[in-house]
Design the sequence.
């Protein structure tokens, strides 16, 4: 027999005893006490002497009256231990069913985030060291190839741990992309992408201010959306064809130009995370992690562009 069943039995016994005591107290107060008071009053008005038995009777009646008055007072201020147990038991059920699993999940995600950031930082250090040792005679195609290889190495940890980081289900279609601003076209162009192999991508470009990518870029702040079809900020006109079914939720994080490689007034690009399922991302859970990733990428971009400038004759 578990605690809940034992408490239910205790509640029944407690209710029976308490109701009996309250009924007896009310019966005494409404029926018997007035009779005793009447007898006492008649004896007082008749100025008759009280016998020993009568004195004992009246003192006993007074004791009973005080006891029953105390019962009624306690009843009016009573808090049942059984009811208190029910409240605690219900709270424990909520903790067990909701709070503890959520706390455990957030703890596991936090551990994974820390591990991924640590691995990305190690890759960044290694790639930056390689950039320092590069020969100035490397051709532009070779530099671009190494740039892309460095991105793959840094961001591969994000791809490998995507399920633990963001809770992707087997049916969810993930998509991660890095857009950088192209001065010649004035558009945001994909420089790196990893996506579910069931997802057909168009690698479309975005102008500043258009779509969640362009909005994050032009406003210089991260954007999160639980369901793009219900977004008041992003128009459905910005979605091409079946995009609203492929990219239902997203986070778009601008990569700041902290080192003023360009003009320092606009981001270098935007890092994007999407899913075809709604509410895939949580700002409470993912904000610090995604912003840290964007900072790591800004460091890598700065080293790469600086090396290109230094290699120019």
Sequence:
């Amino acid at each position: 027999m578990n605690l809940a069943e034992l408490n239910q039995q205790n509640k029944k016994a407690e209710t029976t005893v308490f109701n009996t005591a309250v009924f007896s107290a009310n019966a005494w107060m409404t029926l018997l006490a007035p009779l005793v008071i009447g007898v006492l009053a008649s004896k007082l008005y008749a100025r008759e002497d009280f016998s020993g038995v009568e004195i004992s009777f009246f003192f006993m009646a007074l004791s009973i009256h005080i006891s029953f008055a105390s019962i009624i007072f306690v009843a009016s201020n009573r808090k049942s231990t059984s009811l208190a147990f029910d409240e605690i038991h219900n709270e424990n059920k909520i903790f067990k069913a909701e709070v503890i699993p959520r706390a455990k999940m957030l703890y596991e995600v936090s551990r994974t985030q820390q591990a991924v950031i640590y691995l990305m930082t190690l890759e960044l250090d290694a790639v930056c060291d390689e950039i320092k040792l590069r020969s100035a005679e490397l051709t532009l195609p070779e530099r671009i190839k190494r740039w892309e290889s460095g991105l793959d190495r840094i961001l591969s940890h994000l791809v490998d741990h995507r399920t633990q980081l963001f809770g992707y289900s087997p049916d969810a279609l993930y998509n991660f992309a890095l857009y950088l601003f192209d001065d010649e076209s004035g558009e945001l162009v994909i420089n790196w992408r990893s996506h579910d192999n069931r997802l057909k991508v168009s690698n479309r470009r975005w102008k500043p201010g258009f779509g969640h990518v362009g909005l994050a870029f032009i406003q210089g702040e991260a954007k999160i959306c639980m369901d793009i079809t219900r977004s008041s900020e992003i128009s459905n006109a910005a979605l091409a064809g079946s995009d609203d079914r492929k990219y239902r939720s997203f986070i778009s994080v601008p990569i700041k130009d902290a080192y003023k490689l360009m003009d320092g007034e606009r981001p270098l690009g935007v890092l994007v995370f999407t899913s075809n399922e709604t509410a895939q991302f949580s700002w409470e859970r993912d904000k610090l992690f995604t912003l840290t990733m964007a900072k790591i990428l800004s460091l890598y971009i700065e080293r790469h562009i600086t090396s290109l400038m230094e290699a120019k004759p």
